[in-house]
Amino acid sequence: MKVPILTYHSSNIDGNDYATNNHVALAEDLRTIARLGLRIVPAARVVDVLLGAAPAGEVENAVVLTCDDGSYFDWHDMEHPRHGAQRGFAGILRDFAAQTGRSAHMTSFVIVSPAARAVLDVTCMAGRDWWRDDWWREAAREGVLAIENHSWDHNHATLPRSVQHAQDKGSFKAIASHADADAEIRAAADWLDAHLAPYRSTLFAYPYGEWNDYLAREYFPLHGSEHRQRAAFTGEPHPVEAGSNRWLLPRYVCGHHWKTPAELERLLHDTTTR
Question: In the chain, where does DSSP find H-type helix?
Fold first, then answer.
C-alpha cells in the first residue's frame, strides 16, 4: 500500500489562480488525478486497509483528498469580498463526478467549538459569519464531504481563551496532558457524535499538523475507548504505507508540499501504488 493524502484549505483565497486559490487548485488537481488514471478513495477506507478491515486492493492506484477547518467555503458557493464568486469544494467535487463519471470524495476536518469558530471567523476570515456548522449534517448524509475531527478550538493563537490549561496557544504541541487532550479531542468527538447522529466521527487531524509524543504514544493508543478515534493525521509529506503509524498518518498540503500542477503530477508519480 502506498497512498498520498492531499490536503486543502478552502479559506486559502488570495487571488484567482492556482498559486493563490485552493479552489482553483483543487479543480485543476482533480483533472490531473483523472488524467493519471488514479482513483479517489475516502480517508476512512485507507484506515480500514491499514487496520486490516479491508483488502489492500481497495486503495491501489488511489489518492485521498482532505480539507481542514470546516468553513462555509468547504460546502457553499460563496462570493468572496475581494476575489468574487468561488465554487465550494463540494460543488467542485460534484462537477468532477458529473463530468467524468468518476467518484469524488473529500474528508473535511472541522474545528468543532461554535464559540471558537465565531471568533476565528473574525480573526482569520472575513467576519461575515461564514464558519457555522449548519451544513455539516447535510454533508455527512450526502457523503461527498465526510465530517471529521480537527479539535475543539485548534488551540488557536487568536482566541481570547483556549481549552489548553495554561493558555499556551498557537501550537498543538502544547496539548500534552490527558485533561488538555480530552478537552480538545474527546470533547470535539462528543459534540460531533451528538449533533450529527447517527454519524460517528472516528478520524482526527492534528491542528497545524503538529503532534507530540504524549498524543501519539500515550493518549491516542491507550485511551481509545474514551476518544473513539481510529487514526490521526499530521502534516508530514509522505504517502501512507502498510507500516505507517495510525496515530501519525502523513498528508501533503497544497501550497506547501506542491505549488503547481506539474509538481503535483511528479508527487503522484512518486507516491502511488500502480
Answer: 22-35, 43-50, 72-75, 89-100, 114-123, 136-142, 178-181, 187-196, 213, 220-222, 224-227, 261-271
